[in-house]
Amino acid sequence: QKFKFGVLYAKEGQTSEEEMFNNENGSPAFDEFLSILGDTVELKNYTGYTAGLDVQYGNTGNTTVVTKWRDYEVTYHVSTMLPYDKDDIQQIQRKRHIGNDIVCFIFLDGKAKFDPGTIVSQFLHVFIVVQPLQPEESLGIGYRVTIVSKTDVPIFGPPLPPSGIFHNISSLRDFLLAKSINGENASYLAPKFYKPQLRTRGALIEDLVK
After folding, report:
1. Could you give the count of Cα atoms lying within 13 Å of 177 in the half-sphere of its Cβ?
2. Residue 38 · residue 66 · CB < 8 Å
3. Which residues have a Cβ under 8 Å from the Cβ of 181 and sit 6 or more positions away?
4. Which of 14, 100, 141, 209 has its CA at a distance of 20 to 30 angstroms from the CA of residue 201?
5. Which domains can be identified in the chain, with CATH numbers?
6. How far apart (Å, rounded) are the C-alpha atoms in residues 200 and 185?
């Protein structure tokens, strides 16, 4: 099975989707997070799951992040790896990919905050918000994870630990991939996706009856 997820980088102090989509580059902490999600690959002539990215002409950037986990193949739409257009305040090309995903990882740098209401998309139903712990919060490496989903998405596992904090990177990776895959599958039961499926099935049944 193949999945595509968005990854959006937010700097400390950024509060709007325009600011987040306009980040040309990430940070060392963001790069570290991407290495947890998967491996960075060159897009040109890439033969794995492309998730709609251009592997011939570089029209959607030169690199992306991919991974294989259990029986799943995952490709990420990473905001800072998609082309940046200095003349487009909305960064339509970046948003076209990430805004059409169902699940999006939000990486908060420093003490950044995230309000899911700032991201306008009909398709995005689940946000997995990840933030490195601050030095005063932890002696070692650690991440705080928060899950935000639309109200019509059924509850899905695995459950967060009570603190929402992970210190073990392998456990964090397994959790993030399981949560994102389950989150997408659960979202298909939301009215946005479920009703069109019912209509399609109804049309097929009627055709068979005729």
Report:
1. 24
2. yes
3. 3, 72, 74
4. 100
5. 2-209 (3.40.50.11210)
6. 18
Q: Does residue 21 contact residue 202 with C-beta atoms inside 8 Å?
A: no
The 3-state secondary structure of 94-137, one letter per residue: HHHHHCCCCEEEEEECCCCCCCHHHCCCCCCCEEEEEEECCCCC
Q: Specify which residues 166 forms β-bridges with.
A: 143
Determine the length of the chain: 210
State if pTM tops 0.70: yes
- The 3-state DSSP class for residue 15 equals coil
Asked if 130 and 145 count as a contact pair (C-beta separation under 8 A), the reply is yes
Q: Give residue for tokens 């899950």.
A: 147
pLDDT tens per residue across span 108-152: 999 999 999 999 899 999 999 999 998 877 667 899 999 999 999
- CA separation for the pair 7, 11 (Å, rounded): 13
Adjacent-strand bridge partners of 67:
74
Token code pair at residue 68: 């294989």
Report the C-alpha gap between 11 and 94 in whole angstroms. Answer: 17
Residues 103, 185: Cα–Cα separation, whole Å:
10
First-last CA distance in the chain = 34
Amino acid at 207: D
Q: What angle do CA 104, 118, 108 make, to 5 degrees?
A: 55
